[in-house]
Amino acid sequence: MQYDAMAPVTFGLIAVNVIVFVLETLAGGSTNLNVAIRFGAMTVRDLQRGQWWRLFTSMFVHFGFAHLACNMMSLYYLGEVLEKSMGSSIMGGSQFVLLVYVCAGLFGNLLTWGVQQGQRQYNVVSAGASGAICGLLGVYAAMLMVPALRDYINMQAIIVNVILCLAPGMASKSINMWAHLGGLIAGFLLGLGYFTVLLG
């Protein structure tokens, strides 16, 4: 591994999330559920209508400034270090961070869809980057399994992000813990696969 100077994907993802949030705010407010749905938030009902693109777009929609700020802090802490440290080996750090963000976000949303459909929660609005970000946390967890990679682990970032991503769900039923869990699992598996190839 090598330490590169830039983390374009991490900052690019932050920029996209912030831009969408500003547009939500200008369109009527980011806490307005109708606005969130217009900008790509997902519900089981909309997915049943064939609007599968919401599985992707909902990763960039947030409810209120606190929701956005917590997620972007997590994305910065986890994504920047991961992207820089991987350099250009096999799949560069930038490509890998993007792959994890998208795949973990999609898996978290698919798990959310399955659970909500099973519980007949057809109109619950789900959105946010936290499932995708928990995927990055899952990659850090995979690094713990590989002794050669433990020096790259930023324990401060892990502790901060466990608090930001997971702890709120213990106190609020509005937090989508299924998206967090799905993203964490996907990131962990992607990380194990990546590091197995990288070091194999």
Question: What is the gist of this entry?
Answer:
The protein is mostly helical and 200 residues long.
Description:
It is a single chain. With 200 residues, the chain is an all-alpha fold. The protein is globular. The protein has helices at 8-26, 33-38, 44-48, 54-57, 64-86, 93-118, 130-143, 155-165, 167-171, 177-199.
Write the topology of this structure:
Blueprint: H1 8-26, H2 33-38, H3 44-48, H4 54-57, H5 64-86, H6 93-118, H7 130-143, H8 155-165, H9 167-171, H10 177-199
What is the mean pLDDT? 87
Structural class: mainly alpha
Percent of residues in helices: 55-70%
Total helices: the number is: 10
Radius of gyration: 16 Å
Largest sheet: none
Unreliable runs, pLDDT <50, ≥5 residues? none
The number of E-state strands comes to: 0
Order of helices and strands: HHHHHHHHHH
The geometry reads as globular
Task: State which percent range the strand residues make up.
Answer: under 5%
Cα(first) to Cα(last) distance is 14 Å
